[in-house]
Each structure stands twice: as C-alpha cells, then as structure tokens.
Design brief:
With 215 residues, the protein is α/β, with parallel strands linked by helices. It is built from 3 helices and 12 strands, in the order E-E-E-H-E-E-E-E-H-E-E-H-E-E-E. It has helices at residues 77-85, 131-155, 181-193; strands at residues 11-15, 30-49, 52-74, 89-94, 97-98, 110-115, 129-130, 157-158, 164-165, 197-198, 201-202, 209-210. Strands 1, 2, 3, 4, 5, 6 and 8 form a 7-stranded mixed sheet that branches. It has a 3-stranded parallel sheet with strand order 7-9-12. A hairpin with a 2-residue loop joins strand 2 and strand 3.
Length: 215
C-alpha cells in the first residue's frame, strides 16, 4: 500500500520515532505534539542496511497503551518521500489527539507507519539497535518535551532486551546527527537511569552492548 493524496488535502503523519526529531527530516513540515491511543512502540522492525542487520522502531496494537509523538503536516509530496524512506513499513489510518485542540482537524487524514509482518522479529539477536539511531530518537523527544518525554518514550517502548550497537564513531543510521557532548551525556544518563545502561555497558534491560565489528 502506498499513500496517495489529492492536491486538495494536506498529508499528515503521526510520528513516533526518528521523525519526531526535526533535524532528521528531508522535507518541510509543520509539527504538532500529539498522542495516539491503542498502540505501543517496539524494537521489532528488522532491516539489513549497508551490510548491517539493524533494528528500527515500529508499533504494535495494545488496548491500554498510549504513545507520544508529533503530527507532521505538509503537502502531498512528502507521501512519496516517506514511502521510500520507511523501508518495510505500511501506512495505516489513525486519529491522533493533538495537544492543541485548535489543530485537531489535522488528525482527520493522518497516517501512521507500521512495520510489515515479514520484517518483524523481536527476539533475533543478530539484529541490533544502532546507537546513532537511538540518539536521534531520544534527542527528538528531549526537544519535544524534555527529560519527561524521553523517559516516557523508553517506558512505552518494548524490546529493550536486544543488542545495541555502539556505532557513534561510525554511524550506520543514514540520518545520524552530530550531537554535542552535553547532549550525548544527557542521553547516556537517561539510559542509565532507565536501567538500559550501566557504567557505559548496555546490560540491564538489554541483552548485550556490541561493537560494530561484531556484525
């Protein structure tokens, strides 16, 4: 399925991962803080990119869950951009609740990208979360709502028991950002406080912390 929009309608997408971070966007869009009920994030989306087996975020339906993100609103041209960017995903209709109800009308034609079944594997340790991707996501949530949003992201995401690849010095994520030392330290503190990392070693909620050469 591909998203097709007419010239008369704005295209809007509920973003829950790297697209929350405006610095990863390769198109112009307005962003509105929002929430979607009935979904939980997961690290279950597996793709092979440039010779590396990587994990990305997807969502799974869960009745009593709610995730925070942003609704991106732009013209119909971004539909084609996102269809190419979101490898292994399909768009589904959702109705987000925008933080500012004055913009709730943008939720009427919103999509959410969810991983296709054949790309899902929550337990395969041969696929890892790129630290460069995780950094972009957490940086986006810190921009969205500070440390509160960053911690909420972690708590509303499943699948932390998989390896994390330390690729900060040689990013495997194609839209990796050059973050300041202070921001990296802030992200590391959040991961440690969440039980995902201990003294620089990803161990508690995650199974392993591996170097890129292990893949």
């Amino acid at each position: 399925m591909e998203v097709r929009c007419t010239m008369k309608e704005k295209f809007s997408i509920f973003s829950y991962g790297s697209l929350v971070n405006p610095d990863t966007l390769d198109f112009s869009a307005k962003a509105y803080p929002a929430r979607v009920k009935g979904y939980c994030r997961s690290w279950g989306h597996c793709v092979s990119l440039h010779g590396f087996n990587l994990r990305a975020l997807t969502v799974v339906k869960r009745k009593f869950c709610e995730i925070e993100g942003v609704v991106l609103v732009a013209d119909e041209s971004i539909a084609q951009i996102l269809n190419k960017r979101e490898i292994g995903y399909k768009p589904v209709r959702v109705t987000p609740v925008l933080k500012d109800e004055n913009y709730q009308h943008y939720a009427e034609n919103s999509y959410l990208y969810i991983g296709k079944k054949e790309f899902q594997d929550l337990h395969n340790v041969n696929y890892s979360i790129p630290q460069s991707y995780l950094d972009c996501v957490l940086d986006g949530y810190l921009k969205l709502g500070g440390t509160k949003s960053a911690f909420q992201f972690i708590e509303s995401t499943d699948g932390w028991d998989v390896p994390i690849m330390n690729d900060r010095n040689s990013p495997k994520y194609p839209r990796a950002l050059e973050l300041t030392d202070n921001r990296i330290q802030e992200i590391d503190r959040i991961l440690v406080d969440s039980g995902i990392a201990t003294d620089g070693k990803y161990a508690s909620k995650t199974a392993q912390f591996l170097q890129p050469e292990n893949y």
